Amino acid sequence: MEVITLLQGDEDSHLTPFFMCHAISGLALPFLRLEALSEDDERPVYGITSPMHCPGGDDFEFPETLRDLAALYVEKIKEVQPMGPYLLGGWSMGGMIAMNMAMVLRDQGEKVTKVIMLDSANPETFPSFPSAKDHRSLTHLTFTRTVAADIRLMDADCSPIGSPVISESEFGDYLTPSENRTSTWGTFTTEVSYSSSTSSDYEDDSPAWSPSTPGSPACSSDAGSEYCPEQNRMLEDFPTEDQIDAEILTAAHDLEVAKHEDGEEGDEDEELDDDNEPDQVRDFLQKIKKHIHKGLGLISTVEPGQLLPKDGVSDFHTVLIKCKPDPFDDPNLTQREREGVIFVRSVMREKAMCWEADKFAKFETVPFSGDHDGAFEPQHVGELSGIFRKCLQGLA
């Protein structure tokens, strides 16, 4: 797959192309599940895949910021569509990238008609994390849920894909070292409030956070480890790189078992015993893990007030397709990790996911019955396709 790949529609159509950006796995493959997004399947729909998963991807060097990655993708889409107006979209982290792409295009004097985000939170909301161990641990958690989603899709008689799922373990997206960030994991608390200009759907049980409100000094990043013995103890529980690599081997084995069991029910003459296949699966999963790790680092660099214009209003229409909250509870999480889940749950459940509606020409939230992990599962694809179709309806 190339960085920009035609997923559906007619590339010679008079309709404006719709570009959909990958989530944190770096893969645009899930978008292939969508039904036609225009009448007679005419509008060209392109998926944006990370260069890491494309030919020559081993040599790809990640940009230093999310905005720099967006600028790279703007260069790529301009090879397909040199001039605006542009239609952009993305799933989770992909929506964050699409929003940055819109800002890059705006700065270039181009017109953006609409940005459609599928369950994408405002990256300005998330603090960074002061520990490399925390970054590694939460990469591990995110990767584990990604692979679990793959196997679930295979069990549903779907072809295996590298699903860019982060769900409520999305806290891995921002918990990563960043010297230029003033907010860190130790500075959020469930006792203060953050509010976007759109109220929460779940105000009764939605703890929230304010980027400008420090948490307990005893365990802030500036307090020093001597004040946080419990925190230090929990850090010792985080997995090592060797443990994470062992997890990849296990995941590769699980995918192979699921794939071969499915194959045994099909054509018995099909060659299933390819000596190179396990290594290919392992390499594929290793790239997903690396992309998750890098993606979390990029999101951590977004400062409050950095993404959206501080003064004025963006001139494009924004739609947030809001997934059903997915209750996430893992008894194996440490207390520190569980606190992260609580915080991210508050962001995921906030109606506008902390986007400020008054920063856009028009902002609307559309409810969707699928959860974040299962958005592209067979039982939800029809509804999701219909929502995208309606968002694009009437646009030239």
Can you walk through the features of this model?
The chain has 396 residues and is of the alpha/beta class. It has helices spanning 66-80, 93-107, 132-155, 229-235, 241-264, 277-299, 335-349, 378-392, and strands at residues 4-8, 18-21, 45-48, 86-91, 112-118, 314-324, 360-371. The chain has a single domain (4-392), classed as 3-Layer(aba) Sandwich (Rossmann fold). Helix 2 links the parallel strand 4 and strand 5. The longest helix is centred in the middle third of the chain and has 24 residues, at 132-155. The model is unreliable at 157-241 and 268-273 (pLDDT under 50).
The separation of the N and C termini measures 28 Å
How many separate domains? 1
Task: Return residue spans where pLDDT drops below 50 for at least 5 consecutive residues.
Answer: 157-241, 268-273
- Number of helices, where a helix is a run of at least 4 consecutive DSSP H or I residues: 8
Order of helices and strands: EEEHEHEHHHHEHEH
Pfam families: Thioesterase (PF00975)
InterPro entries: AB_hydrolase_fold, Thioesterase
Domain Thioesterase: 17-142
Protein name: Thioesterase domain-containing protein
